[in-house]
Amino acid sequence: MAHGKETEGPLGIAVLTISDTRTEAEDTAGALIVRLAEEAGHRITERGWVRDDPDEIRDMLSGWFPNDEVDAVITTGGTGIAARDITLEAIRPMFSKEIDGFGELFRYLSFAEDVGTKALLSRAAAGVSSDKAIFVLPGSRGAVRLAMERLILPELRHITAELRKDR
């Protein structure tokens, strides 16, 4: 596959909400990920909710990685600096590679367009595990919209093509 060539057709996306405070009914950020992904022509192949617990997070993701219908995983919640925000600590050891530019661009765009210097508190990140892209997003709707519309959806096909290139 040539550099820059993108995959065609819908991609399968797994969405995981991580929260001790929000119920499934109150999960507006996860619902927004689902809606924006589907509007972009992708399929939601897995959907889950877990507490801010490292074992629960890793168990859920580990169950999704072998699924050939999952091309990417997007999580929301638990990326701040409060003591209970452990999403990145749970997921980062699962990365075989980190996509550093995602977090850098997310914080830059957040600073420039929305939250100002509060952007430095964001620990949004992305990486690769089991040949699947994983995006770790904050739990706010604004952060999810920014990440999905400006970063993830415009590049997801290209990222997936790159991950499939040497298979």
From TrEMBL:
Domain MoaB/Mog: 14-159
Protein name, per record: Molybdenum cofactor biosynthesis protein B
InterPro entries: MoaB (IPR012245), MoaB/Mog-like_dom_sf (IPR036425), MoaB/Mog_dom (IPR001453), MoCF_biosynth_CS (IPR008284)
Matching PROSITE patterns: MOCF_BIOSYNTHESIS_1 (PS01078)
Family to which this protein belongs: Belongs to the MoaB/Mog family.
Record's function text: May be involved in the biosynthesis of molybdopterin.
A Pfam entry, by short name: MoCF_biosynth
Species the sequence originates in: Bhargavaea ullalensis
Keywords, alphabetical: Molybdenum cofactor biosynthesis
Pathway membership: Cofactor biosynthesis; molybdopterin biosynthesis
SUPFAM superfamilies: Molybdenum cofactor biosynthesis proteins
